[in-house]
TrEMBL record:
Entry annotated with the keyword Cytoplasm: yes
Pathway annotation: Carbohydrate degradation; glycolysis; D-glyceraldehyde 3-phosphate and glycerone phosphate from D-glucose: step 2/4
Catalysed reactions, semicolon-separated: alpha-D-glucose 6-phosphate = beta-D-fructose 6-phosphate
Lineage, broadest ranks: Bacteria, Bacillati, Bacillota, Clostridia, Peptostreptococcales
Example GO BP: glycolytic process
Protein's name in the database: Glucose-6-phosphate isomerase
InterPro entries per record: G6P_Isomerase, SIS_dom_sf, SIS_PGI_1, SIS_PGI_2
Protein family per UniProt: Belongs to the GPI family.
Organism superkingdom: Bacteria
Source organism of the structure: Baileyella intestinalis
């Protein structure tokens, strides 16, 4: 495993953590035995065959040949994982089809700007909805499908339409089947927020020119009970111990703006998995050093209702040197070396103020390492939720707002 977890500044005694490891392993085992629902993601990295990867890559190559833009329509787990991966790994250059995400809000201005961006260019669409009836996604699909039909006609529109949904009757599945669109099945036992390592995330990522085989190899290297033996679940344990000691918020903190959507993905993963039955840590994310100039004061001296989780990359791969003519003491140094000073300085200052800090780091960022990170956090999240006594894989609370919203829509 290339992921390192440093809990030395958590303020929690090692004996307390060690006393929880046996229970954490027992909860991990439940993920592998099949006794829990929606655990298809656990074995997915090695059940997702090379032939399935080849099929996605061939489809992605066809899309790149056909289209300047690939419009991915989805919300929540149907887009955030793919967006996070593309932001972190997308290769530079003008030869790649541009992946655009929509269908995750009700902003007419946003959709209008996408239409202007696409203009007369060729484009294809991917519609992602586990239920096949997601309001934001299906609304946007109706708009862009009509645009495609006017541009290409019904037959070519179907050829340029890709759908990822459950293989069961729904508005989306039935319509796509009838019209001949390409459908990729989302397994019934994989929930949306745990679906990034399925066609939900892998197809958009492949279209962006990223090696999805290496992503899956990274995930596969952790897809075993053995990979999480010993101290490997200490992050899950520490999170629960913080909660028991009165902490209410986990602040994920990054030092690279390309990690922003990884933070968004983590917020949904943990928030929707743990926030139920009146329980759960509230997941927040901050981007440093930017947010040190807005939230740094609160973190240092505000209400200590939170703990911090730094997520950093040792060697980012690219750097820029500050010229000797610049102001001292920055002159002659590189931006990334200064960034590391920020990481260590913030950690030291907050630790001295009594704020618990967990540090999670990887040596570099590439497809294999990111595949490990995706699977690592999915596993840690599921175990953490089970340790707190809640079901990680349901989300009954979201139905309340959907019901109220739909009543307003139907009254329009």
């Amino acid at each position: 495993m290339d992921i390192r977890v440093d809990i030395s500044n958590s303020g929690i005694d090692n004996s307390e953590i060690a006393g929880c490891r046996e229970r954490a392993q027992a909860e991990l085992k439940k993920l592998w035995t099949g006794e829990l629902h929606f655990t298809g993601w656990v074995k997915d990295p090695y059940e997702f065959t090379d032939e399935m990867i080849d099929e996605l890559q061939e489809t992605a190559e066809k899309i790149r040949k056909d289209s300047k833009y690939f419009l991915v329509l989805g919300v929540g787990g149907s887009f955030m994982g793919a967006k996070a991966v593309i932001d972190l790994l997308e290769p530079e250059g003008d030869n790649n089809t541009k992946v655009i995400f929509a269908g995750y809000n009700f902003s007419g201005r946003y959709l209008h700007q996408i239409m202007n961006t696409i203009g007369d260019s060729d484009f294809s669409i991917c519609v992602i909805s586990k239920s096949g009836s997601t309001t934001e996604t299906l609304s946007a699909y109706g708009i862009f499908k009509e645009l495609m039909i006017r541009k290409y006609g019904p037959e070519e529109t179907a050829r340029r339409t890709y759908v990822v949904t459950e293989h069961k009757s729904s508005f989306l599945f039935d319509q796509a089947s009838a019209e001949g669109a390409r459908i990729f099945d989302l397994a019934l036992d994989i929930g949306g927020r745990y679906s990034v390592l399925t066609p939900v995330g892998l197809l958009p990522v492949a279209v962006a020119g990223i090696d999805i085989r290496k992503i899956m190899e990274g995930a596969r290297s952790l897809a075993s009970e053995e990979a999480f033996k010993g101290e490997a679940l200490d992050y899950s344990i520490v999170r629960n111990l913080f909660y028991e000691k009165g902490k209410k918020i986990e602040v994920f903190e990054f030092f690279d703006p390309y990690c922003a959507y990884f933070g968004e993905w983590l917020k949904q993963l943990f928030g929707e998995s743990e926030g139920k039955d009146g329980k759960g840590l509230f997941p927040a994310s901050l981007m440093f050093s930017r947010d040190l100039h807005s939230m740094g004061q609160f973190l240092q001296q505000g209400t200590q209702c939170f703990f911090e989780t730094f997520i950093t990359v040792d060697e980012p791969g690219e750097d820029v040197q500050i010229p000797d003519s610049a102001m001292k003491p920055f002159a002659g140094k590189t931006i990334e070396k200064i960034n590391k000073c920020a990481v260590n300085g913030v950690a030291d200052a907050h630790t001295k103020a009594g704020i618990p800090v967990v540090r999670i780091s990887v040596p570099e960022m590439n497809a294999n390492v990111l595949g490990q990170m995706l699977y690592f956090f999915e596993t840690q999240c599921a175990v953490s939720a089970l340790l707190s006594g809640v079901d990680p894989f349901n989300q009954p609370g979201v139905e309340a707002y959907k019901k109220e919203m739909r009543s307003y829509i139907e009254a329009l």
